[in-house]
Amino acid sequence: MIVGGHTQAVPARTLSIKANLSGGGLTIPADFVGYSINPLSLIGGLLNGSATSLINLAKMIGSSGKLRIGGGDQDTSPAPALTQQLANDLGAFLTALGAGWSCIYGLDLIVNDAALAATQAGYLNTAMGSKVSFQFGNEPLTSGFTTGTYPTRWNTYYTSVIAAVPAAKLMSPDDLQFSSVQTVVNALTPGKAGLTAVTTHWYVAATTPHTAEGLIGTVRGNAINMNGTTGFFKNNEWAGSTPLILAESNNFSGGGLLGVSDRLCSATWYLNEAIVFAKYGYAGICTHCNFWWNGTSGWPNGGVVGATAPNIYAPLLLQSDLTSFAPGAIFYGLYLFSRIQGQQILNAQTDSNANETSIATLGTGGNANILVVNNDTVNSLVVTPDQSSPWSMANVLLLSGTGPYDAAPTLGGAAIGVSGAWSGAPLSINSGQTVTIPPCGAALISMQP
């Protein structure tokens, strides 16, 4: 049994999975994986075209992605002090990430200044043109607005911003309450069809059991409860041709839970989330970072540059030198899923009731890529992969660790270091061989002719 490149005798469940190359479904957008970063990081000077360490790490997920700038410090009075130079810095940062990256920028709604929003939208449009879209307000229905007052103010902002930037692309409502999305969007001046995307947030509730099992189980629970207050929408059941995007998401709300959000199981959770939302037709997930918030004691040093406590659940972790970045545990999940974005989802047959989540996609060479996530926190999972056409060997990129609470997971046998330094490599198996995934691990199995 292959476990991180070594043979081990461990308890195991089994899974046989076969991808059908002739029958495809939805295509995962090429920019599905992305980040959400607070405006404070831009104002503080971290997001500019010369932020080498951050850029090198962040762009590991590909030349296409979504960068959402927004969060709790987006809605303040006075509003975040955006300038044309800061907008230019952000544009340079976006360009450095890759040609296929776009920006979603959240304008301050609490300050109630539509003219200022129009001015700032103008700065951003000058810097990024069609690569930037705008949101008004962050989680408005949990910060004082109602389903009536939010559309009223949003429409005022809309009139002002469109007058200043006629081709402005708008997204809304950017809230946590899935059940209120339809009511809010239908009351907006452009309506659903006039939005570039419908954006929502999703976090794991703080009341969820503070364990790996509790965290991982949340995705399936919400997927089943689709008609409840927290159940997810399937894109084609309501939004139709208007894309749905999780513009802000991560695991335990409030900055994460020490000992869970910063461990291997958080990558397992993300892979479950990405697989479910990709199959539901979502256009992307922006995983939230807040470089100076430690998630337990509020804003260190008032949230200013110089605070060093990391955001526990962040995929991108600011280091103590305040210029270098290293990956959080969840980043391993983002990276692994990014290897299949842009690919068509295939039908796959399985013959197991093991605690796993999987997805098969059509690779660029006409082969099947099969991503399998072992949600079991105790038992390994022995996978027998197959596809409907003959194949001779497969490359296997394995995410592994010593258990669900491993603080230093590895990918391809090596950890990802500061600035994205990584020496990992896939394993090779022949047709008919198995791959063993350790508890809370995952494997991307790429079949070859």
Structure description:
The chain has 449 residues and is an alpha/beta fold. Helices cover 23% and strands 30% of the residues. The chain has 10 helices and 22 strands. Strands 3, 14, 15, 16, 17, 18, 19, 20, 21 and 22 form a 10-stranded mixed beta sheet that branches. Strands 4-5-6-7-8-9-10-11 form an 8-stranded parallel beta barrel, surrounded by 5 helices. Mean pLDDT is 90; it is low at 1-9, 226-230 and 294-309.
Can you count the helices?
Answer: 10
Major sheet summary line: 10 strands, mixed
Q: Supply the helix-strand structural class.
A: alpha/beta
CATH topology descriptor of the largest domain: TIM Barrel
Distance between the termini: 23 Å
Low-confidence stretches: 1-9, 226-230, 294-309
Strand content: 25-35%
What is the CATH architecture assignment of the largest domain?
Alpha-Beta Barrel
Tally of distinct domains: 2
Give a quick rundown of the structure.
The chain is of the alpha/beta class and 449 residues long. The protein has helices at 39-43, 52-58, 84-97, 114-128, 149-164, 181-186, 212-224, 235-238, 264-279, 331-338, and strands spanning 2-3, 6-7, 12-27, 33-37, 64-69, 100-107, 132-136, 169-175, 197-204, 244-252, 284-289, 316-318, 325-327, 344-350, 356-362, 368-374, 380-387, 393-400, 410-411, 427-430, 435-437, 442-448.
SSE layout:
Elements: E1 2-3, E2 6-7, E3 12-27, E4 33-37, H1 39-43, H2 52-58, E5 64-69, H3 84-97, E6 100-107, H4 114-128, E7 132-136, H5 149-164, E8 169-175, H6 181-186, E9 197-204, H7 212-224, H8 235-238, E10 244-252, H9 264-279, E11 284-289, E12 316-318, E13 325-327, H10 331-338, E14 344-350, E15 356-362, E16 368-374, E17 380-387, E18 393-400, E19 410-411, E20 427-430, E21 435-437, E22 442-448
Parallel strand pairs: 3-17, 4-5, 4-11, 5-6, 6-7, 7-8, 8-9, 9-10, 10-11
Antiparallel strand pairs: 1-2, 3-14, 12-13, 14-15, 15-16, 16-22, 17-21, 18-19, 18-20, 18-22
Helix pairs in contact: 3-4, 4-5, 7-9, 9-10
